[in-house]
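$ ./design --mode recover --in tokens.txt
reading tokens...
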């Protein structure tokens, strides 16, 4: 009888513990940040020479975009040939089904933008602020193009009624020269 009672108690305790301790989504996967949505922006990963689309013969920057932190974050290191530098960190937020990017540069500028894939383009937008504190909307689009990636950005100071081009860049695979 004692063995039977112990077996019933063990069975009840085990099933009760299992009901209250189901593995979380992150624990179910031994490798974090895998799956379709986490890989949507991987087309931007690479070692790039950056060109202004209006002057495609002149390199304006070098950029390296790589996956870091177990492939959960895209890290961009951007070095303009004019001396300015910046970095971005992009991550897919599964809890909100949203991509988030934070961009910072060597002049103290911070831009945070969010969005989603639309077709083959990553579209992110947000608000930054003018020196006088007034808000300005910003939107950017990254899309695969030819052998590289095209990044187009625009800004609006009238709540999105009109948009002015900010920049239009083409990232092409880096070609080492005798100088680098």
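writing sequence...
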């Amino acid at each position: 009888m004692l063995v039977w009672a112990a077996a019933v108690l063990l069975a009840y305790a085990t099933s009760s513990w299992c009901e209250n301790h189901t593995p979380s989504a992150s624990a179910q996967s031994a490798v974090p940040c895998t799956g379709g949505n986490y890989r949507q922006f991987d087309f931007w990963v690479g070692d790039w020479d950056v060109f202004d689309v209006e002057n495609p013969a002149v390199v304006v920057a070098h950029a390296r975009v790589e996956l870091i932190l177990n492939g959960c974050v895209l890290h961009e290191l951007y070095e303009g040939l004019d001396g300015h530098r910046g970095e971005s960190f992009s991550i897919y937020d599964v809890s909100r089904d949203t991509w988030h990017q934070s961009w910072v540069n060597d002049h103290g500028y911070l831009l945070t933008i969010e969005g989603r894939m639309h077709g083959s383009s990553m579209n992110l937008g947000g608000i930054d602020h003018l020196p006088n504190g007034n808000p300005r909307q910003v939107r950017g689009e990254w899309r695969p193009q030819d052998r590289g990636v095209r990044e187009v950005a625009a800004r609006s100071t009238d709540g999105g009624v009109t948009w002015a081009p900010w920049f239009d860049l083409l990232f092409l695979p880096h070609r080492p020269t005798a100088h680098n």
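exit 0
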